[in-house]
Amino acid sequence: MSSRRPRSWQPSSASRITDEQINDLVSKLQAVLPEARIRRSDRVSAAKVLQETCNYIRSLHREVDDLSERLSELLASTESSSAQAAIIRSLLM
Amino acid sequence: MMACHFLRALFRIQQTSTSSSSSGRSRRIRRAAYASMAYSAGTRRAWSRALLRKLRSRARLRFPRRLSRAATPQRRDMDQAQVLRKLVPGGPSMDDCKLLEETADYIRCLTTQVRLMQTVMDSISS
């Protein structure tokens, strides 16, 4: 992984962050991104990981919005006792 | 547990749903989603503490949707940490290490919440 850091990195107030620490955290971040976005085995720049991370978070926020709307419509159109039963069923899964 | 909180909130929303508008209902569901994420992480995480503060202050929960228009291609890698700070609750006050740690946890929590909502959807619509 590149030892060059993006210039916007802010130094910690406590102590100097080493490149190694940053690289380690960046690779941990790469590990939570879906394989479709960045393969875990790929060595990519920190900037690329950050970029994909931002894209992924934005898409997750959109999914929450979308699912909220669809759940809202479903609850409105479903008869209340069957919706409640279904909600309880989800708890047991 | 994340699921319990979210499901209880859905119950309440469902019971009062006849009196509220549809966009109001979907906003409440969205809020319940972020609340259940925040409660599941509790005060252990900076992002969840920031989210809890926002929820308690009744402020509108907003995240930037688009790429920052100011980012020209050459500057993009310099801006990504700043862009990320705006997407993660509590981001602006985090240093780089903290930001990376908190982001990984925030993503894990978000994906769990999304899966939960999908499960509930499948359950209700079947």
TrEMBL record, chain A:
Gene3D superfamilies noted in UniProt: Helix-loop-helix DNA-binding domain
Biological process (GO), any one: regulation of growth
Cross-referenced Pfam families: bHLH_ILI
PROSITE patterns named among the record's database cross-references: BHLH
One MF annotation (Gene Ontology) recorded for this entry: protein dimerization activity
Swiss-Prot/TrEMBL keywords: Growth regulation, Transcription, Transcription regulation
Domain BHLH: 6-60
Family: Belongs to the bHLH protein family.
Record's protein name: BHLH domain-containing protein
Protein's organism: Musa balbisiana (Banana)
Automatic annotation (TrEMBL), chain B:
Pfam family, one: IBH1_N
Domain IBH1-like N-terminal as annotated: residue spans: 4-58
GO molecular function, one term: protein dimerization activity
Record keywords, A-Z: Transcription, Transcription regulation
Matches recorded under InterPro entries: HLH_DNA-bd_sf, IBH1-like, IBH1_N
SUPFAM superfamilies, sorted: HLH, helix-loop-helix DNA-binding domain (SSF47459)
Biological process (GO), any one: regulation of DNA-templated transcription
Family as reported in the entry's similarity comment: Belongs to the bHLH protein family.
Name of the protein this chain belongs to: IBH1-like N-terminal domain-containing protein
